[in-house]
Design goal:
Elements (H helix, E strand, L loop, with lengths): L8 H7 E3 L10 H7 L2 E6 L5 H10 L4 E5 L9 H17 L10 E5 L5 H6 L10 E6 L4 H18 L4 E6 L2 H4 L1 H17 L8 E2 L1 H6 L15 H14 L9 E4 L16 H5 L9 H10 L2 H13 L5 E3 L5 H8 L3 H11 L6 E3 L6 E3 L4 H14 L1 E2 L5 H7 L4
Parallel strand pairs: 2-3, 2-9, 3-4, 4-5, 5-6, 6-7, 8-9
Antiparallel strand pairs: 1-12, 10-11
Amino acid sequence: MRHFGFLDADRTDALFHLLPEEIGQDGDRRLVATALGATLYAPGTRPALAADVRRQVAAGVTSMVLCLEDAIADHEVSAAEANVITALRDLGENPPATGGGPPLLFVRVRNTEQIPRLAAHLDCESAATFAGFVLPKFGPESGEAALVAVRRASERVGRMLWAMPVLESPQVIFREARTEALLGVRELVDKHADIVLAVRLGATDLCGLFGLRRDRDLTIYDIAVVRDCIADIVNVCARGGDHVVSGPVWEYFAQPERLFVSSLRVTPFEEADLVDDSADGARMRLRLVSADLDRLIREVVLDKANGLLGKTVIHPSHVPAVHALHVATHEEYMDAMAILADDAGGVRRSQYANKMNELRPHRTWAEGVLRRARAFGVLREGHTFVDVLAATGAS
């Protein structure tokens, strides 16, 4: 897959200092995890599932989850399984033909028993676009069996399949059990690190345990009990930069009536040197606010600040904003390159003359920036995510 592969050469040349790389699903684990970007969920019951995937890929989606768990009713499981198998075979035989290449497709199962049942109907050729399984309610007690089942499914299919555990169980968020549960999760993902692509957060389930639901005017970081849990998950599971933890789902569509004024500043949109001459920055901002995407943008910024990469999304309109915010800026890239150019320690003045770069404390950050640069590209100097949104048609 390759991000922004649907853009023409003139736009990419005007926008990028370095273009996104093409990344295979069997590439470096942390690079592939970084490249997931906005992972779009789709119910496994959709009647034209393969056609839906092709349509979303043509619009810039690079990773999707076909859901057999919470997105479908209990009585629909058998029909949904058959539907997903048919779609995977169809997509394997006729992969989406776009500049971005075939997407990474995952199946979210309800239980471990579903994994061998699905794998029995697939092989290396028919599952060419199938990347692996999403494992809900993951914990120390059930996690080992689920990961072993993914390994066996890989053997059945004839190539490696990824596993993405979802942390959303009571043990993960209840204070008295959290530390032991997270240490157990970390032990498992370390043990199976060769197949664990990323750790995902089930924010909806975690909120539900307390009867909470974040309002569209809030981010997940405004919900204190979940915010504290996310901090501990990052502390244990993302420590050292060995594992990628993805951002929680954004679950809202547009609604015209709002309680609070948008925090999305006007200036970046008014002053943007837009690559697309037909785009209007002020009008773009208005549309983002009207569609509630300004709240999503704020949450993605907070995700990145707190050590999370990528995001679960449930609507195609969310994808451009998430991807735009993951493109490395020219300033980030130059700082990262300067930090990694020398391992002797010490401090270097940023080329942008607005900060200091400490070579040792900032090293892990810089390595992460370079992975984002490879996956999403590097903007030309002076460009921002607003230019990416304009170029991708989000305006």
